[in-house]
């Protein structure tokens, strides 16, 4: 109960992200933001890339934020976060900031600002070893600008730039494994989480904030508009992604893999696809082979993860 209370409001009795923002009904992003910020041990400075979160929480002349917040471009989110971290260290050297005053630096970006446009800055900041937490809220497309495909869009997914039709079956490429890319930078903490498994996400934030160096959280966050499902089924959509092994919950601590959740009764990938209109074309008889291909790849990725966790 103490953890749950902490996730509702901060020590001053106010939420870090207040209501009244214009994020869509059923959007998982505010759940992620509130869980992350309320799980930190102290105050935080937020760096926010352009995207759904930025646009919907800061419409002039209002803001939904109750914490220090900076809006930056798609491509430089991690660079700005690393600059703030460097400034903190400089202030401590000068005695202008107490050594025992921990101020977390948290960067939020969607998959477009993480997997694609912001990848170069993120890679550089991770490689340099700046102490900050980068949170990707991954809704698997450029939702803010009209549902265009991104590096996170799943194979076969329908977007406005990967439409199914006579000459196409949706996105022709597999999604990037951004979590593995972060792990390859040999940073202290990397994890996958979802907006629906809030307790798992909260514990991972606590671990990420405690490490000396950069940390990265890849959080699956749905978009009812882009995915094409009833907003009331958001939790079900995200839980099914986990239970089909499409989105495993795991962490990598100093290079050691830990599986955080193993579905007791794994579901076939079709159970995740069938309730999203972006995959409706794949369920037609002529595209059955693509569903089988997706299932085969999900199984291979799951077995590879299990091998890493042994």
UniProtKB/TrEMBL annotation:
InterPro entries: PorB-like, THDP-binding, TPP_enzyme_TPP-bd. Residues 50-219 form the Thiamine pyrophosphate enzyme TPP-binding domain. Gene3D superfamilies: 3.40.50.970. The keyword Transferase does not apply. GO terms for molecular function: oxidoreductase activity; thiamine pyrophosphate binding. Keywords: Oxidoreductase. This is Unannotated protein. It comes from freshwater metagenome.
């Amino acid at each position: 109960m103490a953890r749950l209370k902490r996730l509702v409001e901060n020590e001053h009795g106010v939420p870090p992200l207040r209501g009244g923002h214009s994020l869509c009904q059923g959007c998982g992003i505010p759940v992620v933001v509130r869980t992350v910020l309320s799980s930190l041990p102290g105050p935080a400075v937020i760096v926010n890339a352009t995207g759904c979160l930025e646009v919907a929480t800061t419409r002039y002349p209002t803001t939904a934020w109750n914490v220090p917040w900076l809006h930056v471009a798609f491509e430089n989110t991690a660079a700005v976060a690393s600059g703030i971290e460097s400034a903190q260290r400089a202030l401590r050297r000068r005695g202008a900031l107490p050594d025992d005053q921990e101020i977390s630096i948290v960067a939020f970006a969607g998959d477009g600002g993480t997997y694609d446009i912001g990848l170069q800055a993120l890679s550089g900041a991770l490689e340099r070893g700046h102490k900050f937490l980068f949170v990707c809220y991954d809704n698997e497309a450029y939702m803010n600008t009209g549902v265009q495909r991104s590096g996170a869009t799943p194979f076969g997914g329908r977007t406005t730039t990967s439409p199914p039709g006579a000459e196409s079956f949706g996105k022709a490429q597999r999604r990037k494994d951004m979590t593995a890319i972060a792990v390859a930078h040999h940073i202290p903490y990397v994890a996958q989480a979802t907006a629906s498994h809030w307790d798992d996400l909260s514990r991972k934030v606590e671990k990420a904030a405690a490490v000396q160096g950069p940390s990265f959280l890849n959080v699956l966050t749905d978009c009812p508009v882009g995915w094409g499902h009833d907003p009331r089924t958001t939790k079900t959509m995200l839980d099914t992604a986990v239970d089909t092994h499409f989105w495993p919950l795991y962490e990598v601590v100093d290079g050691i893999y830990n599986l955080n959740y193993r579905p007791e009764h794994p579901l076939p990938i079709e159970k995740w696809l069938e309730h999203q209109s972006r995959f409706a074309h794949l369920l037609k008889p002529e595209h059955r082979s693509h569903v089988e291909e997706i299932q085969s790849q999900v199984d291979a990725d799951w077995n590879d993860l299990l091998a890493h966790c042994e």
